[in-house]
Design a protein that fits this description.
This protein is an alpha/beta fold. The protein has 8 helices and 7 strands; from the N terminus they run αααβαβααββββαβα.
């Protein structure tokens, strides 16, 4: 009896996933048939909703903003360094793992759809998404890696992989790879590790505040040069200044200048009797 219930539950999940994926495909097809280009904002929302669907996870509002920024960076291939200063146990690793895991499935799938054959935003993902996860120690890198692997092997994810005809080509304690070419690997970024040589489309620096600036700039950054990789740096406050601190300081300076310019522009508009101010 329990076995039958389990079979029925799996069939229900597969049917529900099939219906949702067909709805997504139908919407995209309608866009293409009407001669409309799918906007980047719509693609970001589409990929974000897929990440929630495959993982059975619902993001908090602050996680949603961070996840969508990661997705947009991949789609536009802007090569930005995206840093997130979160306090401990607020879900920064969970957010990154869930988002990147979803991108490993959906981006190559979209890239190989006929309607996106000439779309430059997705062309680089036709053979997969290559992800490198770095941390001060291998154990710390495997925190995000294991969460990503857990999401990729959940019930919803398995139903989606079956629907797309995908399987795991590699699945061990350090690397997980799909048959669409996507892979994620966890690597130690300790001062004595020799990690040069690989190339990635997305680089994740976990507990970035404890990775030395020399290691980040000499060994990690060059690994993204070939694909103009986006670099995600997540961490929290620590007792010394390093690359992560400098990144936060740069962002604060840039933000303060932007706010100052906005306030100045607002004052000028008020003097000329304009009442609209954009921040």
């Amino acid at each position: 009896m329990l076995q039958r219930r389990g079979i029925h539950r799996k069939l229900n999940v597969k049917l529900r996933i099939h219906v949702k994926l067909q709805e997504i495909k139908h919407v995209i097809t309608c866009y293409a048939e009407n001669g409309n280009k799918v906007t980047t904002s719509y693609l970001v929302k589409l990929v974000y909703k897929f990440c929630e669907m495959y993982s059975e996870i619902h993001y908090y509002p602050y996680q949603e903003q961070f996840a969508k920024r990661i997705i947009r960076s991949l789609l536009t291939n802007d090569g930005d360094e995206i840093s997130a200063l979160f306090s401990r146990q607020t879900g920064k690793s969970e957010c990154v793992a869930t988002t990147v895991g979803g991108c490993m499935i959906i981006l190559p799938t979209l890239a190989n759809m006929p309607m996106f054959a000439d779309d430059k935003r997705l062309s680089m993902f036709r053979k997969g998404l290559y992800v490198g996860i770095f941390a001060p120690s291998l154990r710390q890198a495997q925190t995000t890696f294991n969460r990503m692997k857990t999401r990729l092997t959940c019930t919803n994810s398995q139903a989606i992989l079956d629907e797309f005809g995908l399987e795991f080509s590699t699945s061990n304690g350090q690397t997980v790879a799909l048959t669409n070419g996507s892979f994620a690997t966890s690597v130690s970024a300790s001062d004595r590790s020799n990690i040069e040589g690989d190339s990635y489309m997305l680089i994740i620096c976990e507990e970035c505040q404890d990775i030395s600036s020399f290691k980040i700039r000499k060994s990690i950054h060059p690994m993204g040069a070939s694909y103009n990789a986006s670099i995600i740096k997540i961490g929290t406050a620590t007792t010394f200044k390093g690359d992560f601190y400098e990144q936060q300081a740069y962002l604060l300076i840039h933000l303060s200048r932007s706010l100052s310019n906005s306030v100045t522009q607002c004052s000028r508009n008020q003097q000329t009797q304009h009442t609209i101010c954009h921040f």
